[in-house]
Design brief:
Length: 265
């Protein structure tokens, strides 16, 4: 891939995060992968001296449901562009009282409740047992905790994310079960995105915004409520993600870039 079609940092835009207008010298590129087409064309551009790639996880206009996202194609395409760090945004439901709508959460653990998602690049020929003990890049995680404090945003430094298959929301029984597991937030997109990034040796951070209390709170979740919360907090969301980019350390001090070293057989 030529330097022209390259990026150092990628933003995967989740629900409500689609605006690439602040990137300079924008160009849309189509990347071909062994896994088919990514969610959409990838927008490349400059932001305050850093090369950035942007891909809307659900496609432009939110056309792809969570269980149909081609995660392997998305991550493969970003790897082809030379991306070393992924900042992934997501809308999440809260499983606890003190994680309120509008709050940010920096996920550090997940519980996988998906069913039918291709979740590895290694399906035969060579075996890969990637470590998932700490699935989020520790350098990015620490950076975002400190950066959110500088911005004065209400953010929670930890969060166990229950990733469900979707596209339906949980039953009350399921929601109460996840709370009994001491999980903090719930969503439909973290897995296998974060694990595929680890297999690709790309640093990954999930920046979640709480949009609602999950149905354990005896109030049925609605898609309109989620979009409304996202719209009201879009400015802070964009500020947190985009203003982090020029402030990210140039060098990676984590071990994400050598994640395959002890994983391949």
């Amino acid at each position: 891939m030529s330097k022209k079609y390259s990026a150092e940092i990628a933003v995967i835009g989740g629900t409500g995060v689609y605006d690439t207008g602040i990137l300079e010298d924008q160009e849309e590129v189509k990347i071909f992968t062994p896994y088919g087409a990514p969610s959409d064309l990838i927008t490349l551009g400059e932001y305050k001296g850093r090369r950035v790639a942007f891909i809307p996880r659900h496609g432009k206009g939110h056309q792809i449901p969570p269980h149909k996202i081609n995660n392997r194609a998305n991550i493969w395409a970003l790897k082809e562009l030379g991306v070393q760090r992924i900042i992934a945004s997501s809308a999440v439901g809260s499983l606890r009282e003190d994680y309120a709508p509008g709050d940010f959460v920096f996920t550090d653990q997940f519980i996988d409740r998906t069913k039918n998602r291709a979740d590895t690049f290694y399906e035969g020929g060579r075996i890969c047992h990637i470590s998932a003990a700490d699935p989020i890049c520790p350098q990015l995680h620490s950076f975002f905790i400190n950066f959110s404090k500088r911005l004065g945003l209400k953010a929670h430094p930890t969060g166990t994310y229950v990733c469900i298959e979707g596209p339906r929301f949980s039953t009350r029984a399921e929601s109460k079960l996840y709370r009994s597991w001491n999980a903090d937030i719930i969503g439909m997109t973290l897995y296998p995105e974060c694990i595929l990034a680890r297999e690709a040796e790309i640093c990954y951070i999930s920046v979640g915004m709480v949009t609602d209390y999950d149905v354990w709170a005896e109030k049925p979740v609605s898609a309109m409520e989620i979009i409304d919360t996202m719209n009201r907090n879009a400015g802070n969301f964009k500020k947190l993600i985009m203003e982090s980019i020029p402030n990210l350390p140039k060098d990676r001090s984590c071990k994400c870039g050598e994640a395959l070293k002890e994983a391949l057989l």
